[in-house]
Amino acid sequence: MKRLASPFFRFLRPRPAPIVAPLRTLSFSMPDPTAETEELLADDVAAINELRESYEHLRAELGKIIVGQELVIEQLAICLFARGHALLMGVPGLAKTLLVSRLAETMSLSFNRIQFTPDLMPMDITGTEILQDDGSGRREFEFSKGPVFANIVLADEINRAPSKTQAAMLEAMQEHRVTVAGNTLELEQPFFVLATQNPIEQEGTYPLPEAQLDRFMFMIGVDYPSREEEISIARTTTGAKLPTLEHILDGEKVIRFQELVRRVPVPDHIYHFAVDLVRRTRPDSDEAPEWISPYVGWGAGPRAVQYLILGARARAALQGSYMVRQEDVVAVAEPVLRHRVIKTFTAESEGVTCRSIIARLVEELSQEA
Asked: Which of 42, 93, 310, 336 has the most crowded CB, counting CB atoms within 10 A?
């Protein structure tokens, strides 16, 4: 992670120590033995071990095609097993579509891709009724399902569609069902939506409002690969046909692991840490540091706390841990808060990013814990 170079941090922090340290160097407080925690059953311990092994197998299979992007794969898996949805930000050509389609392949889940365009209508996503002849001369309407009826849906460039189409997609994400012509149909579980936005082409787009962005559990940043990774990409993708990946999980197992994740114990001090972190993002809060107000217009809401805990639970289970640790919350803090912290014009003009603001908040809170 890059260190912040903006003058406002040097002004507000007189001590000579670095402003933002890499997250991996942070020291974490030990769990409070007096805190209240849940307990795992023996079957849950075995299930967590199975989930960790399946996750390692999943990463190995995706590694046959996807070069690098280990952190992106981990964050996608966290969202999936926490029953959340993800918004992917990255320039074209970084294998976002390939990653999602291959993830569905390894899990034996159905996959549909929706290319959002300015003329896309809600019925193009949810489906519509078609007048059909039953063969006896009688005609009746029959519902034709849209592409949202899949286990994993890729909403490509979601900001290119008008607001009513975005709303239809987000309603399906939130309610896990669609209503067409007065009929309500449940979506098959598990249901996971990955939406993408192109950060470099904004002409003719309809940016998602902050209230709709809040529906996404994670905003995942996809960066350029390293030089070595790019060489490996050139070698593996310009030769023979890409390999077929092994099926590791099915829908029933995914649902079982999703239920398991919500039973992972969380120590009481972890709830306090997550709440304190979110409250510090709000400039009007008494807990917020003084330097937040000029650079943050709006902070994160209570849903951010929920996703911090759920994300930490999922990460702990994927790592084979039987209890949530503070480092699990720190690991998911950026993707959870990145799209929920709204910067001011002052922050934009000084080049202060949401990632840097979140990193400093995490560092300061970890030092106090």
From this structure: 336
Residues 189 and 150 in one domain: yes
pLDDT of residue 36: 43
Residues 135 and 269 in one domain: no
- Cis ω on the peptide bond leading into residue 190 (within 30° of 0)? yes
Strands 183-186 and 192-197: unpaired
Query: In terms of C-beta density within 10 A (0-12 exposed, 13-18 middle, 19 or more buried), how is residue 119 classed?
Result: exposed
Indicate whether 196 and 276 sit together in one domain. Answer: no
Q: Tell me the per-residue pLDDT of 292-338, one tens digit each, with 9 for 90 and over.
A: 999 999 899 999 999 999 999 999 999 999 999 999 999 999 999 99
Between vectors from CA 192 to CA 338 and to CA 143, what angle results, nearest 5°? 135
Among residues 103, 44, 12, 35, which one has the least CA distance to residue 263? 44
Four-CA torsion 98, 102, 105, 107, nearest 10 degrees: -130
The long-range contacts involving 296-303, CB below 8 angstroms and separated by at least 24 positions, are 296/341, 296/342, 296/343, 296/344, 296/347, 296/357, 297/342, 297/343, 297/344, 298/210, 298/341, 298/342, 299/340, 299/341, 299/342, 300/336, 300/337, 300/340, 300/341, 301/214, 301/340, 302/278, 303/214
Q: Are residues 155 and 224 in the same domain?
A: yes
d(CA 240, CA 362): 45
Distance from the Cα of residue 239 to its chain's centroid: 32
Assess contact for 254 and 190: CB atoms under 8 A: yes
Domain finish residue from 208, 231, 261: 261
Centre a 10 Å sphere on the Cβ of residue 348 and count the other Cβ atoms it contains.
11
| Total domain count, the chain | 2
**Stated pTM of the model:** 0.82
230 lies in the same domain as 111: yes
How far CA 148 is from CA of 95, 123, 189, 190, 234, in Å, comes to 21, 10, 12, 12, 33
Q: Find out whether 316 and 325 touch, Cβ atoms under 8 Å.
A: yes
User: Distance (Å, rounded) from C-alpha 108 to C-alpha 86?
Assistant: 20
- The percentage of the chain sitting over the pLDDT mark of 90, rounded to a whole number, equals 32
User: What do you get for the CA distance between the two ends of the chain, in Å?
Assistant: 22
